Amino acid sequence: MVKDPVCGMEVEPRQAAARREYRGQTFFFCSEDDASKFDAEPARYAPAIPSATTGVGADVPPRVRITLPVSPTSSSGGPALVQSLKALPGVSRARVNVRGGRVAVDYDPSQVTTADLVEAIRAAGFGVGGQTARLKVSGLYCAECVARIEDALKTVPGVIDATMNAATNVVKVEYAPASADLERLARAVESAGPYKAQRAAEASDSELDKEAQATEKEYRSLMRKWWFAAAVGVPTMILSYPWLFPGLRDLFPRGSDNLLYVWYAMGVASLAVLAYSGSQFFAGMWQGLKRRSANMHTLIAMGTGVAWLYSTVALVLPQLFPSEEFTDVYYDVTVVVTALVVLGLAIEIKAKGRTSEAIKKLIGLQAKSARVIRDGREVDLPVEEVLVNDIVVVRPGEKVPVDGQVIEGQSAVDESMITGESLPVSKKIGDEVIGATINKTGAFKFRATKVGKDTALANIIRLVQDAQGSKVPIQRIVDRVSAYFTPTVMILAILGFVIWYDFGPEPALSFALIVAVTTLIIACPCALGMATPMSLTTGIGLGAQNGILIRSGDALQAAERLNAVILDKTGTITHGKPALTDVVLVPGQDEAELLRLAASVERSSEHPLASAIVEGALARRLHLAEVDEFEAIPGHGVAAKVEGRRLLIGNARLMNREGVALGDLETRSQALADDGKTPMLAAIDGRAAGILAVADTVKDDSRAAIARMKKMGLEVVMMTGDNERTARAIARKVGIDRVMAEVLPQDKAFNVQKLQLEGKKVAMVGDGINDAPALAQADIGLAIGTGTDVAIEASDITLIKGSLTGVVTAMQISRATMRNVYQNLVGAFIYNTAGLPIALGILYPFLGILLSPLLAALAMSFSSVTVISNANRLKRFKPSVSA
Amino acid sequence: MSADKIFVTLGGLAAIALIVWFFWMVKRPGVKAGLSSSGYQEAMVLVKGGYTPDVIVVQRGKPVRLNFVRAESASCSEMVLFPDFNKSAKLPEGDTVPIELMPDRTGEFEFQCQMGMLRGKLIVE
């Protein structure tokens, strides 16, 4: 038996319908049709036949080299990896670049497959960073196609696994992007038969689309149901009360045959409404009953069902009732209640879609493609194929595809979508860039550091999704209530019926029925159930748009009740790195000149304070000179020759040692030190020239942010490891009264606890690196991140933008959200506790008011729409900028 | 009191007793999650008007994977939440969505849809 190369079916050569010679091979076909297809494109079908022994196409060279991205999962090193790879038959060479995270393997594909290599790599304690692509394949015609396509893909070097879903015609390929690419995968599929392959829509995109489509479908279906119910509802309403309309009054007098016929017609029409427009209520009730639970559907289905049944019995078997006044029909209740509730559901769906807009926006931010340098050429790749350590090129106006570090060029990048910072941020060599931000002015190249699901954006999306699914603690109480709510309402309805029947006015049965139906319909477990989740989803989404990641509902509720904030000094209030702050001159010296010379010397020094001086000089656009005879004197400072002049930079001890007279510089230096700065004395050619003072500077907005925290009624405390004097100096500058100075890193959590023992709810703000225990100890830990380093694990709230303004915004958002939650809860609670007694007729003995079931339906639909609208109102929140 | 009133009263009380018994009194037995070859305790959960099964029993300390399949379009059930584990997932209609959890303490943990209309329980033993 041989295979027909076109359709893939087995053919007995002697019985073949046709045969062809091509490239020295003979092919047999099961039909003339296949043969003519083969004639048209022989090259397409012929080389694809895998050899029987190896499963590899004839034109694949026997030796293949692939590069796989690897990452160590245990402590075993590169040599172990090479050994385990070489132990495989058919592997001739393996080289590992552990730091670059790649392994290159030369192997014979007839003896070993990529999957075997991957197995060996995993066994050696390394992970293989495969990428996943989804290809949509068309042209499948037989059941074996699936296996054939999978096999064809697996023979492509670099493909780790391929699985095809025959139902969707999408094949999921796991592959090493360094060796294989999408184009090659598509070609492999197409060479396996008459298939066409193209990249399937990305999972995230299609999910979004699918979701939007599903919502839209649901909305349209509800609207159709509403129009049908409304179309039946209007005539039903009119004909239910013909005596109210002058023309109809005479046509359908009470007790006439005409009226009876109309009632029959309404009975049939309203049954149609129940069966079509109200179908989901009955289906929902049935599903619930199967698991012994009751929900909104149960109530609506029972309310409308009871009204219809009663009316129909009264119509068909009026003799069952004691007098004629009981035999009124309530078809209008059935139809109008169904119509109104369905309309309410439709509006609800539209409004709910807006609630989760924030996350949709975030997912939509993701870049689609990247320009990567591979083999010295710029190639456009889908963003999923970008690997760690790839060099990515970004031109002005383009999106930064993944996270990374700039290695060439400079630009300004708009990071507002991630950090909430509205001004573009300037980027130079060494700076971090975040995926999904937009490059504004210049072109640059960067090295990818985080790709795929590790990027800041992916982390943010995951975090926001999880947080939106969490609960505000208060919701747990609501949950306990709502588990009992629906059955309780049913019991109330029965009680109402019995009481009205036993003690109510005549006609007791009619009143009892109306009361029971109204009670069932007015209760709205939905409003109660949606009150907090809707606000929470909106509030957390709102945070994400402002660069604030709130981890859970618990964090949100706790943040609202704070009364003290501890701020870590370094990196939180201040920038966390020294900068040049003062230049003090001896008369006769020029500031620019002294700074230029000093910076030229310090450029050769590795001291952290030295770089502050160099950066200070560069910021003033000074051109630095060449330096000779550079000498670092430990514990004193540095000495060097610049442009023939001898410079000394260091402390007073250096000046004394070199015999430099300091004059009043000594006292001025002391004054600078008192201010929390580090003074460095400078001398030129043996004479004192001035002082360069360096200090960790306060962030621009710290003072304003702290003032606003105080205004919000929070006690602001600064915590630092610095000495009391320096700490006080900074605290004065930013307006903080209470300082915890000289706190060792390991004592930070203890100091948080001290404040908590004063009976305060404490927030701790830090960079999340060395103060993780303190962040965990605090009622709320806020981590100030910078760019891609989101310290999510340690904190309850993460501020992507490294400024204190975010702390204020975070608290404003949590307060606004919690206020919204309370509004919704109180609204839903009042509605249900007030609505139920009124529906039960508690006002009747006093005021003669009895609620109509129609009004109840209107109120019920309105209440859940109100809850959602109120939650959507939260989206208009803007962080207030002024103090 | 006339006969019909007595009849209605007794009937009403009987109906109330039925509701109390039907919804609150009967404890439903849970479904034990099976241990799969990957080391997860796995269970499929059908989402259609509710969760089937809605009580899932797992063992403490072993990872759990619950595969949700939503077979309806009502928007109410489009999310499933595990508030005690801070986990949630969107359930596109027809897709199998796995949720992985690590039950590290015993007890009963509820899972539910976003509005809390559909509920289920994860019992960790």
Number of strands of chain B: 11
Work out the number of β strands of chain A: 34
Radius of gyration of chain A: 38 Å
The quaternary state of the protein chains shown equals heterodimer
Sheet with most strands of chain B: 6 strands, mixed
Taking all Cα atoms into account, the compactness measure Rg of chain B is: 19 Å
Principal-axes geometry of chain A comes out as flat
Helix percentage range of chain B: 10-25%
Distance between the termini of chain B: 54 Å
Q: What percent of the residues of chain A sit in helical stretches (DSSP H or I)?
A: 40-55%
What would you say this structure looks like, in words?
The complex is a heterodimer of chains A (883) and B (125). Chain A is built from 31 helices and 34 strands. In chain A, helix 11 (296-316) runs antiparallel to helix 17, helix 12 (331-355) packs parallel to helix 31 and helix 15 packs antiparallel against helix 18 (525-545). By secondary structure, chain A is α+β, with helices and mostly antiparallel strands. With 125 residues, chain B is α/β, with parallel strands linked by helices. In chain B, strand 3 and strand 4 form a beta hairpin. The model of chain B has no long low-confidence stretch (mean pLDDT 82). Classes of the chains: A alpha+beta (883), B alpha/beta (125). At the A-B interface, helix 7, helix 10, helix 12, helix 15 and helix 16 of A face helix 1, strand 4, strand 7 and strand 8 of B.
